[in-house]
Prior knowledge:
Layout: E1 12-15, H1 21-32, E2 36-41, H2 45-57, E3 62-66, H3 72-86, E4 91-94, H4 112-135, E5 141-146, H5 150-153, H6 159-179, E6 184-191, H7 197-207, H8 226-236, E7 248-251
Parallel strand pairs: 1-2, 1-4, 2-3, 4-5, 5-6, 6-7
Helix pairs in contact: 1-2, 1-8, 3-4, 4-6
Amino acid sequence: MSAETIDLTGRVALVTGGGRGIGRAVALALGRAGAAVAVNYRRDEDAAAQVVKDITAAGGTAGAYPASVGDLDALDGLVAAVGADLGPIDILVNNAGMASRGQSVVDTDPAELPRLMAVNALGPHRLAQLVLPAMRTRPRGDIVFISSADVTRLSANGAPYNMGKAAMEALAFTLAKEERPHGVHVNVVAPGLVATDMGERLVAAKVGTTIGDLDSRYPFGRVCTPDDVAGAVLFLVSGLAGYVTGQRIGVDGGLDHDPVLSGTAAAG
């Protein structure tokens, strides 16, 4: 499936963590399909600016918006700024996330749990609160949560990450029931290991190699790419998924366990 088969003209998308990795791929895919894209970022202004440049160079509309998803007070300003510049948000992709530090529960820094919960679950909850009143008035609304295969695997040494993503999925499936009468579709995309900067750091720490060296050990002869995840998101927010809500799409090659990273968290 390509963006050329999907037309999102007239829609406004907010992609959190949209400057790099999965978020970048999602933002570019939505932009190619005609949506105006708000590229949210926390620190990497240059990366977000490049995504905006790539979208606008192809004839699309985009803007970069700084805010930490874990800072709940900052999200009101983020949504207001996007609405003022691009119009009401009718596609929200909750992509921004934070990985665990790989400690057992007994060794976890007490400050890590609230920090990860804020980014992976509480921020998405607040964003949903902020965008839904206007989203309900649109012809269609979509909220997509980027979760992780680890929610079903629940690997050791990553409780804060597992808990945050599990809470995110609980939010998604609750919202799907609440918002169906309002024409809002809510779905989850759950990748396994993805070839991103975070994935590279995880692989280097776990097995001392690069993601490219692992391709032969994964389905279809390669590790999942950000474009694989973006394709699932693009489908879910399109007319092709007009009767799809409350679903969880795994983008992990059908694995029931990770062949390399079993026993750690934040594979996605």
